[in-house]
């Protein structure tokens, strides 16, 4: 579904009354009865109705706003990552150009080295001579590798190249003593090694520090289920803010507050791995039982004589009525526990049904009980 705010023509901070008025005006305009010649009127009318359904419900509106804000943040990150990738691609192309020219330079340096070997000179002397006379390299006359890098990338990249070589390269017109000192001092790395280091540093500079997110963020929702759903391990349908329906199969170990993770059912963005859906279980109110962990609690009213003398009573359980024995002298603070009649736990068993006793009097006063209580209060026993 498209942005509901845009569909209704309201701002994101619009009040409920403003949203309702905008929906009525839009619905009246695009109603199929008013646009019988327009085949798309029905779909547009339904789309406006869906937008209003999202915005009129405060909870659904909040979920949509959170998802939209998250989507906008991720798209900004993706755009930044895409721009960084484009810069890195351009840097790589320029770096390949540097490699090509440096390869030509090495090839030309190899020729006088081969001639020197033919004259009986050592390979080390030939390499030192080649490095001591950079004016023999390819490119414009007297151009050094650093000058070539500055010509292609600019002064900033040339500074990086100089830092790789351990200092500034001799410029045109420098004395031979400077070249000799450069050769006798810290030796300049071979051109291929220089190119590799330079390319790596340039790519790192243009790539940026913010990596493109590989997975969209997760979404948290509340899954309202009935007690019967948990007992029978039914499947429930969750309605998402984008009008998707996600099926959640209840499993053993789920109870009030449990968070179920549904892989790939969260936020969906093009070009990214879908996020997960985190469904928090909420048990709807039941008139018979109350959920506490994996145990179920219920209340049983007993008469005064059963509380004092004990007796038998029938109690409703999730599996039908059961007879229980009430111990003598049972007050309203006591319970009777029926094992294995609660929710399915995560250990393969079930919780218990806890019967909370509540002592109640008869609907109408009983004279004998009243006289007995009066005698007990005043210490007179018959």
Strand order, main sheet: write it out.
Answer: 6-7-11-10
How far apart lie the N and C ends? 81 Å
Low-pLDDT regions: 128-138, 167-186
Determine the number of helices (DSSP H or I, runs of at least 4 residues): 12
Structural class from helices and strands?
A: alpha+beta
- How confident overall, as mean pLDDT? 77
Tell me about the largest β-sheet.
4 strands, mixed
The general outline is: elongated
What is the C-alpha radius of gyration, as a whole number of Å?
A: 41 Å
Q: What proportion strand?
A: 15-25%
SSE order in H/E notation?
A: HHHHHHHHHEHEEEEEEHEEEEH
Secondary structure: helix percent:
40-55%
Number of strands: 11
Short description:
This protein has 382 residues and is an alpha+beta fold. It is 46% helix and 17% strand. About 8% of the residues have low confidence.
Characterization of this structure:
The chain has 382 residues and is an alpha+beta fold. The protein is 46% helix and 17% strand. It has helices at residues 4-8, 16-30, 41-56, 58-118, 123-132, 145-153, 155-165, 176-184, 191-207, 227-232, 304-309, 367-378; strands spanning 219-225, 235-239, 245-249, 259-262, 277-283, 290-292, 295-302, 311-317, 320-326, 335-338, 353-359. The chain has a 4-stranded mixed sheet with strand order 6-7-11-10. It is elongated. The two termini are 81 Å apart. The model is unreliable at 128-138 and 167-186 (pLDDT under 50).
List keywords for this structure.
382 residues, alpha+beta, four-stranded mixed β-sheet, three-stranded mixed β-sheet, 11 strands, 46% helix, elongated
